[in-house]
Amino acid sequence: MTPELETLRASPFFHGFAVEDLEWLATRSEWRDVETGVELFAQGEPASSFSLLVSGNVKLSFDVNGSGFAGSGGDRAGSGLDPLQTISHPGYPIGWSAMIPPYAYRATATAAEPARLLTLERCALEEHAEASPSFGLDLMRALITLVGDRLRATRLRIVARRYDDDALAIRELLEESGPRLKAGSPLHRLPHYLESRLTLADAFHVIDVLKSDGDAAERELSALCEDLLENVRRELWLYQSLQRIYDSVAGASPRLDARMVRERNMREFQELFRGTRYRITGLENLPEPPGHLFVMNHLKNHPENLLPNKFILTLDTHFVSSMILFERYGQAPVRVIRKSRPDEYGHQSFYDRLGYVYVYSGHVDPIEDSATSAESRRRLFLDAAGSYLEAGTNVVICPEGTSTSTEESPLRLHPGAFELAAHVEPEPLIVPIAVANFDKKLTRVTTSAVVHEPFRLSESVRDPSDRGALLEFINNDLQPRFEAWVEEAVTLAERG
Amino acid sequence: MAERGVELERMMEVPFFRGLPQWALVELAEQAREDRLVAGTVILHQHDAARDVHFLLHGAVQILMQVADKDLLFAVLREPGQLIGWSAFRPPFRYTTTVRCEEDSALIRVSGAAFEEIFERDPPLGYEILKRVAFSVAERFEGARATLHGMPRRGPVSG
Known about the structure:
Number of strands of chain A: 14
Largest sheet of chain A: 8 strands, mixed
Structural class of chain A: alpha/beta
Largest interface: A-B, 40 and 40 residues
Oligomer: heterodimer
Radius of gyration of chain A: 28 Å
Strand order of the largest sheet of chain A: 4-8-14-13-9-12-10-11
Distance between the termini of chain A: 49 Å
């Protein structure tokens, strides 16, 4: 048996086809090897070939607008295509549009890792369908089954999104398939594994094992489950990445100074964010050289990002720090962080190691309070943050002092950040950055950041020590502008 | 109300049947039924044996899927000629959704068995007919995909 014939016979798509038909197809098939990132075909292109995945991983994505993404100078964005499905099981067909009018590919296929495919030209399939009509019937029935399964999976994904409940969609799928699935099948455990973030990895382990080692029903259903859980797998990847990032900082070797830990942290966050959808504009507004104050609205974290130690990494500030500031300046900025409460071990372990500047908000450590006053703590903050700015290190601060949702953002801006700008010589530029959607599930939205034109406080407030004048500027000038900037960031994110 | 047999001219109102050889049209027309249904009538139920295929002549039908104890609306089909019940062409021959009349509608109903007789008699014609079915399913899939990628996090799913 030739390798081509072996591949065709092993493929679930060609299950039940006459051997002589497969033998003929084997003689007309061709191997195709592609490297990571190679586009097999693009959405809208004439569809002339149909392939079976032999090994590797192919990602299908879909341009919602049908026009493809186009970036422009000064802008940056993550992928402009919506991910549809990742195909990783051997024998799965890719490019069925070659056999169904209007014979144009309905998605873009890209190799997510080196892949091998067995390819058949449409003309060969049509030729054999004409010569062997029973083959033609079998082929069309198989295609109807395949596309019907894709339709069913898409509807279940709609169910999952409608109810924000992937376990529900899986339960529906398994219930629908009840008679075909044996009572002891591990697939029945899936809905339970999906209930908790901590057992998500177990769900995918079951799927991965059954895709290759299950019986026929389990192989088919696990492939469908994998398709349905595409977003969940990405969420698991995101969550596990956050865990690794946390451990990398909290467990950093004492030999590494805070700057080195920050830089490594920035690179790890860049890797994470590059796996998400995002848009950034206004990069032309970033001043040179570094050593400026970056003020941004602060978005709360999605509760599903809560790590097992009850700590949440703030994604909006890490995005600005890594994808904008570290990317441009090659230097990890310092952030202003609220001082950890005594019970926040995760928070303290993380931020202590990064050498960030603490600001006290509300909580007072009874031991420290005996030695310092609110004014002393304020001076400590101004001196610590100011020394970074004077040394040419960028500082990131969220003037709201707390976080909220994109819809409610920005909250009232407090004067502390601007007092810092007035405290430093020479006076730094204040660079506003508005962000959106970091409070949502990053695997399901496009986030955005817009960098606005820098300004100096002295251009708007002649005497920053005049609290009335400072508050007048913040409340009546900057606040409404920031509200408009956040709306702009939301609009940018909606462009996808 | 179902009438036995359907006039050829009526069949030809459905684009699916256009271009098919006369003998096949006559055979299908003889076995077809025209159903005139009032709003709210369920045409087929999710999980039922898929014995018939339906073609919308006029009116509108809802595609529903049962989730937990609710019927979730996926799409409303209004365009004349829409094929409903493609599960009749593929194992396990069970409808995957419920279809209900949103308004008073007229449909042509043809049994899957009638089509199978055509396929057996003329397999190349069967290939062409199934290609048209595959096209319908692909259109339905593209519609569902557009719904999935356009829908807000919470809200109606009707497409």
